[in-house]
Amino acid sequence: MAPNVRLPPDSDSEYSDPGLECSDESDVDSVFDNDDHEGSECGSDATVLGESSDEDDVDFKDAVNLFGGNTHPPEYYQNAVKDFDESHYDGQDYSPGSDILLDAIEDTWKEFCKVVNRDPKESYTSLSIGILYNFFNWRLNQQVNKDGRKLCGTKKKSSLSTYWKVFRLCVERATGDKIDPKLNRKMHRALRDLAKKHGLSDEKRVNRCMTIEDLSEQIRTTLSTTEKCFQLGEIRILAVLFLLLLAPAGARPASILRLRFGDIRAVLARDPEGGAHNILTRFTLAFTKTYLGVKDAKTFTVPENFFDPSLFLSPHVYLMGILFRHQVFKAPSLTSPDKLDMLDIHAGEKELPLPLKREFDDRLVFRRAVKTLTGYDISMDAPITYGMMARWIRRIGEILGFEYSTIPYSLRYAAANGFDQSVDISEALRNLALDHANSVPFQRHYLGREVNADTWAILRGQKPQQALIKQACSVGHSISKRRPTDLTAEQVASVNTHPLIRKLELELRRMKRGSNEHAKALRKLRNEKLRLKRSLKQNIRNEWTDSQAVEDIERQLRGEWNPNQVVDKGCRPQGSAQKYLVQALAAKCDDTIEGYYRRRNDAINAIIAYCTVEEGPTMRRKNTSPTETQLTPTTDTQKEGPLQKALKIALKAIRVKTDKERPRYCFLCVGKALTLQPDDPLIKDLVREFYTSGDTAKHFRRRHLSILEDHHVIYCRVCDETLEHKKHLQNHGLKCHGLKS
């Protein structure tokens, strides 16, 4: 039987599933031959598998006779029994991610034993309530780790309980025996006392569900906002596709992120009710939580939904956009979404498969963006981690105005509760979809603690106001665009006046620049500023709901309230490609199937086009006066705006005529600007003029030469010339563009 393959989960704390489930038993395939071959099409003739020469037959028979029918002689197994290492199979078989966690806690235990002058291994065998209490008390009092970096600290009682559970596994791994049950019971009381002593919170993570309305708003904001950029347009599309695959499956987020092209199957299916042919998307989640063994892969089938009010919630258009973008379809002529309209199903058959190329089978769907010589491109193998995706989703939730932090598990909670309330899904099917062995994990961790029912109306025999209750119990019940997402300039400045910051700045001034002590102190100062900013922002967001409500009440009672007030957050406008993308997905549909096909194809083409757009870093506009705002071009109707004028000036400057000219523009960045839309805001950054030619050379070395690899294609768009290698690039930059590097 093949060994279990365990894949490490992301180290992000939000990855861990709230429930600890395991299957009761695993199926064991028979490894013995079955003598019952009657009716079988398999013959015993060797020529069925392939012809062999007479010499091969003789060699094979000699080998069989030599080893008694086995491929190895008896001595091989005699020595194997003697030399077998049984210690390899002692203890529990943990995944690599769990081993990392166990090793970290074991290192902490060794540090504590050094403090109390005890041997770590011997202390495992002589544990007492006094040692354990003081170990966890010492751990909760730790402010910095062994490397001198500040610890975030333990805030929740549940975290302390988890720490104790992992420590028990460390003891079991080291000694081979479990902790004494009496000592375990005593520790439960000790943990309660420690939680009270250190002020740990009993509050659990909010498990509010993300309704389909909340999901729609999250996706709209992800696609339309410019407050958050994703470096490359394809990453923005993948962030939406992740949500739309996670929602119907209710799967663990990491299993979606590990999806490969080989796990996806698209077919054109005949409608049994006589409707138009439907594109079915089947995706198999082969990688999921591997506690106590690899779980069976599950396949989810999502049909295409015709005549939706918009295509924001259509996973098919995003997935098809990715497939067409990378030309994954095996049929050579299936290169654009328009070709899908021409396909039909053979008479008497129910499906027409749309096979994908085999070379893409092991390639991940969700891959991160990587830097290239002049911009960004999608990586071939570097995955998007759970931590990255969780941060993007949380940031979009802040921009949208959610009060609670949005996490991927919000969709898993929603799916679990939706499955539980549906008459079309049984309890067994719900547990299968969620990878639960029984209903206990669902009841303990997934069933919403916000009771999603109008209990008072039910008791009074009235019709429940279910829509209102569902909204009140969802993530978006208190959504507000006015909710602050970032600190103001005044709030940021207030951090610099904090006593700790002033103390650190004073210490920094006394140190010699360039020394190791100066670098460490500078890093400590920056980290402390970031920590204070995050803390201030969170406090402001926590207090905003009540304080803003009081302000709104007072204004309404004074007759000064304006319910339609628009908050301008000062973000850059959308580019033309982003506008086209949002418009294509929001387009209304005709009442005909042909009209739907046109809308779907337009949306897929918009997605394909946007995948190649380089968004760059997030940029925020400074507050400007109304007159300044009017001077900024925001439409495509203008023939030549300031961006194009600046590009012309830069182009003229980088074409040197003498060896002594040293322009203050980067010719690679200017060449990149030539490929962008005329109104793309990235042009402004690409054609900026540096203060000196030396600054231009520094930028060229840091931004371009430092990341140049052998497989990168070096191409100067200004001169329309392909360069062979790094030295050729430097030589070309000096001779043709006056850039000395």
Automatic annotation (TrEMBL):
Region (Disordered): 1-55, 618-639
Ranges of biased composition (kind: Acidic residues): 22-38
Keywords annotated in UniProt: Coiled coil
InterPro entries reported in the protein's UniProt record: DUF3435, Znf_C2H2_type
Amino acid composition bias (Low complexity), ranges on this chain: 624-636
UniProt feature coiled coil, ranges: 508-542
C2H2-type domain sequence ranges: 716-737
Full protein name: C2H2-type domain-containing protein
Lineage of producing organism: Eukaryota, Fungi, Dikarya, Ascomycota, Pezizomycotina
PANTHER family, alphabetized: FINGER DOMAIN PROTEIN, PUTATIVE (AFU_ORTHOLOGUE AFUA_6G09300)-RELATED, FLUG DOMAIN PROTEIN
Organism: Clonostachys rhizophaga
